[in-house]
């Protein structure tokens, strides 16, 4: 069935993507990132960035307010946990629905303009939502502390829980924070229920985005990006298309927000702040806007920096250089320490600049260049060996 | 032949790994008795402090204190307050014979970031206890995370009533005093100095700490006859308070209460002084400013502006008791400056945790909690102190301080006006300002 929906290349892409995502605990453990919290974040922000890319990558409309949808999704999910049940299904459904409605309203207004005016409008709406959540709607959002579960929440669908113990979010009995720890080659692999739920949803989200990219709807969105005026002159009303893209990407963000709350049942206002909206823009551009894999890659890199680099303090760096003489170690520590620990923003900024300047297509473009270069050099090598090159001549292989 | 050997060896290794993989499902029923049970060699503590944002100064000082505490626990340095502490369970050989290691993280003064950092410490580094926080919102968020994860949370600088009030948790403990205590200690002094017919205007940081402090100070001063003219909330991330100060000039208030902390207070006080509030006369009385929660780091940030301004603190380095003096000299030798109250409470919390583990003979959070509950101690700088079991709040004397008129050094900025005895700041666990929550049951995780 999959093969019918996709051409061969896409089937391979989905399969490889799924395998890599599902094997994440194994692949990330050597990088020090194989613990549940960070892996969940990779998947969740991957979904967020994939959704953002449907709007920005395809239509070129740069929204600076997507974090608002993420926040709305989180709040909806936590309220579901409080009122209805700690099962994540109703929470996630409601978060997608509410953020979709929210996106419809904001999109309807913001899409009356394009270009920078559109960006500013979305930014204004998001900042408005942030301030509402932070200080006006505190009975709903609990302000800066964030909305949390409490022992005396009604939870009408759940049976009475153990006295004095807060239930944790679960999927029909599977608790999100359940982790199996498996020793493997000296590493401790952590297979976490929550991560695998995020991972399966990420794969589904990736598949849907792929279908959108390949559909005629996706083609129309690309047309909007390349020349909206021309489309309008030919008598096509582009508004329904862009609005649909906006709502879809808003729902993706809401899904990410709902998942975030499911993994860690707290919704704070700061995840709606403009910096959070900017972050998803960075993720998408860094990975490669308009490419399928780029946003996921960008999300993973930024989250890796935020969580791993920011935790390297002077003691850790000193431990790296203990084999060196003291004076040399000290110099190296002084040189490196501004770029790690609390200076992680600095190194991220540098990398971002390098990517934007030298690889405008993002890291995906970088990967493509590298693979093209390898293929070319392999071919050149084979050419230099007489008698072995003939069958690999381009054109003949097809 | 040699090839065969290596192959066989790697085959055995590989089959071991496969076996472990097959055994995975049974690992869901965890072998450990509680979350992150430490091995025989060392134990990891997680220090989660703000390294950026409005409380970064406090965070940096807290980290210094934690590092010093670890050094003393492991038998390094001069032992600090281990020598003056009334409990003698700790002997400088780590905790229960295990060397103390630590990991640090940045809370960014944001609940989300703080929880992410704490989760990383628990899941990645195997931290058995999380401590820190310089914002009550963050402390409350991290406290509930630790409750869910099954580790102990030793709150750092958090002053909101809610931390041990409506948001209290069985796995969370607070040594620092709270907003109610500030109000109870400060109001009598204010009434005595400024009279009982004052009109107060509150500027309040808009989050749990600000709200409860505003409520506490209002209640305590109104009981003395003061009137509250207005209370305005300001965002935590605000850096310029001019637009909030201007309306104060046009009200008929004669006291401005700044429910701000850290960089917020430095900025709002500086703005207030720039607007000439301190020279102003209203209703025939000199206009006064009050900063209910004070710290030396803030006083240094605000410079000349703090002179003569009243507030309260948990501890101050100029205290003359032996424990405080020992701590100040030990901290000073290490870092060349006296410790702040944030540093003091964090150092003490680390020691209290280590001591509780040692007395309980186990790292199990439930055993540790039991050892801390209703624990009475002395010799940690605040005199006789009680860790009340009903809400996990410490009760001790509270200091009322004032910005010094003629400071002798850059650290000598506050003078202690009065030491308010513990009895005066005591309250029942079900006091209305603290009601609405429940500790729940201690959670050992696993």
Automatic annotation (TrEMBL), chain A:
Primary localisation category: membrane
Entry GO terms, CC: plasma membrane
Transmembrane segments annotated in the record for this chain: 12-35, 42-64, 84-109, 116-137, 193-213, 240-260, 280-305, 317-340, 346-364
GO molecular function: branched-chain amino acid transmembrane transporter activity
Pfam family, one: BPD_transp_2
Keywords: Cell membrane, Membrane, Transmembrane, Transmembrane helix
Protein name per the record: Branched-chain amino acid ABC transporter permease
Organism: Saccharospirillum salsuginis
From TrEMBL, chain B:
NCBIfam families assigned to the protein according to its UniProt record, in alphabetical order: TAT_signal_seq
PROSITE patterns for the chain: TAT
Keywords carried by this UniProt record: Signal
Matching Gene3D superfamilies: 3.40.50.2300
The family this protein is said to belong to: Belongs to the leucine-binding protein family.
GTP-binding keyword on record: no
SUPFAM superfamilies in the cross-refs: Periplasmic binding protein-like I
The protein, known as: ABC transporter permease
Species name: Saccharospirillum salsuginis
Record has Signal as a keyword: yes
Domain Leucine-binding protein: 43-404
């Amino acid at each position: 069935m999959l093969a019918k929906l996709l051409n061969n290349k896409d089937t391979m892409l989905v399969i490889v993507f799924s395998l890599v995502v599902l094997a994440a605990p194994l692949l990330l453990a050597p990088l020090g990132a194989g613990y549940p919290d960070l892996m969940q974040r990779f998947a969740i922000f991957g979904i967020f960035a994939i959704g953002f890319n449907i709007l920005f990558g395809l239509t070129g409309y740069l929204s600076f307010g997507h974090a608002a949808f993420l926040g709305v999704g989180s709040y909806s999910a936590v309220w579901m946990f409080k009122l209805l049940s700690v099962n994540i299904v109703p929470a996630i459904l409601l978060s997608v629905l509410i953020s979709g409605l929210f996106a419809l309203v904001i999109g309807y207004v913001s899409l009356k303009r394009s270009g920078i005016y559109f960006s500013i409008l979305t930014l204004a709406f998001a900042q408005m939502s942030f301030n509402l959540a932070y200080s006006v709607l505190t009975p709903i959002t609990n302000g800066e502390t964030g909305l949390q579960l409490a022992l005396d929440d009604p939870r009408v669908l759940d049976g009475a829980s153990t006295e004095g113990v807060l239930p944790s979010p679960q999927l029909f009995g599977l608790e999100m924070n359940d982790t199996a720890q498996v020793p493997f080659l000296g590493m401790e692999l952590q297979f976490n229920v929550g991560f695998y739920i995020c991972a399966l949803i990420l794969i589904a989200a990736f598949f849907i985005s792929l279908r959108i990219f390949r559909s005629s709807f996706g083609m129309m969105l690309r047309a909007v990006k390349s020349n909206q005026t021309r489309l309008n002159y030919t008598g096509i009303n582009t508004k329904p298309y862009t609005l649909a893209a906006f709502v879809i990407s808003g729902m993706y963000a809401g899904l990410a927000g709902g998942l975030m709350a499911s993994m860690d049942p707290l919704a704070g206002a700061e995840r709606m702040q403009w910096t959070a909206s900017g972050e998803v823009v960075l993720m998408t551009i860094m990975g490669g806007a308009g490419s399928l894999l780029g946003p996921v890659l960008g999300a993973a890199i930024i989250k890796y920096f935020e969580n791993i680099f920011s935790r390297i303090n002077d003691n850790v760096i000193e431990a790296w250089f203990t084999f060196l003489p003291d004076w040399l170690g000290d110099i190296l520590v002084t040189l490196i320490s501004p770029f790690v620990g609390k200076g992680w923003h600095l190194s991220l900024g540098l990398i971002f600049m390098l990517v934007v300047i030298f690889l405008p297509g993002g890291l995906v473009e970088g990967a493509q260049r590298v693979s093209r270069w390898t293929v070319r050099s392999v071919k050149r090598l084979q050419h230099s060996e007489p008698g072995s090159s003939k069958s690999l001549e381009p054109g003949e292989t097809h | 032949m040699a090839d065969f050997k290596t192959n066989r060896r790697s085959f055995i290794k590989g089959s071991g790994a496969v076996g472990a993989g097959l055994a995975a499902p049974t690992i869901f029923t965890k072998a450990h008795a509680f979350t992150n049970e430490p091995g025989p060699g060392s134990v990891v503590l997680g220090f989660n402090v703000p390294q950026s944002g409005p409380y970064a100064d406090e965070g940096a000082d807290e980290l210094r204190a934690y590092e010093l505490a670890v050094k003393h626990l492991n038998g390094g340095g001069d032992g600090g307050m281990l020598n003056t502490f009334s409990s003698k369970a700790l002997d400088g050989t780590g905790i229960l014979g295990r060397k103390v290691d630590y990991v640090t993280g940045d809370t960014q003064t944001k609940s989300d970031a703080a929880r992410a950092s704490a989760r990383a410490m628990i899941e990645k580094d195997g931290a058995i206890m999380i401590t820190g926080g310089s914002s009550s919102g963050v402390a409350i968020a991290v406290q509930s995370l630790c409750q869910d994860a099954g580790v102990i949370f030793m709150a750092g600088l958090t002053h909101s009533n809610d931390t041990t009030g409506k948001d209290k948790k069985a796995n969370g403990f607070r040594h620092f005093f709270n907003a109610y205590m500030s109000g109870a200690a400060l109001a009598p002094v204010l009434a005595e100095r400024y009279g009982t017919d004052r009109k107060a205007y509150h500027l309040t940081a808009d989050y749990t700490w600000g709200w409860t402090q505003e409520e506490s100070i209002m209640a305590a001063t109104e009981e003395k006859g003061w009137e509250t003219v207005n209370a305005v909330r300001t965002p935590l991330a605000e850096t310029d308070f001019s637009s909030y100060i201007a309306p104060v000039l046009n009200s008929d208030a004669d006291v401005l209460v700044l429910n701000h902390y850290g960089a917020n207070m430095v900025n709002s006080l500086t703005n207030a002084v720039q607007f000439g509030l301190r020279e102003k006369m209203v209703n025939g009385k000199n206009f006064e400013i009050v900063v209910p929660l004070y710290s030396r780091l803030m006083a240094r940030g605000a410079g000349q502006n703090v002179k003569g301004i009243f507030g309260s603190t948990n501890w101050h380095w100029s205290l003359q008791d032996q424990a405080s003096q020992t701590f100040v000299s030990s901290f000073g030798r290490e870092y060349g400056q006296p410790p702040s109250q944030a540093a003091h409470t964090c150092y003490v919390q680390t020691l209290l945790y280590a001591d509780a583990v040692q007395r309980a003979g186990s790292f199990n959070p439930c055993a540790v909690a039991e050892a801390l509950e209703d624990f009475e101690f002395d010799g940690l700088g605040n005199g006789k102190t009680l860790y009340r079991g009903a809400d996990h709040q410490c009760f001790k004397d509270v200091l009322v301080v004032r910005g010094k008129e003629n400071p002798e050094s850059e650290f000598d900025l506050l003078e202690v006006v009065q030491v308010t005895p513990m009895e005066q700041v005591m309250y029942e666990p079900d006091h209305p300002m603290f009601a609405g929550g429940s500790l729940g049951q201690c959670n050992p995780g696993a």
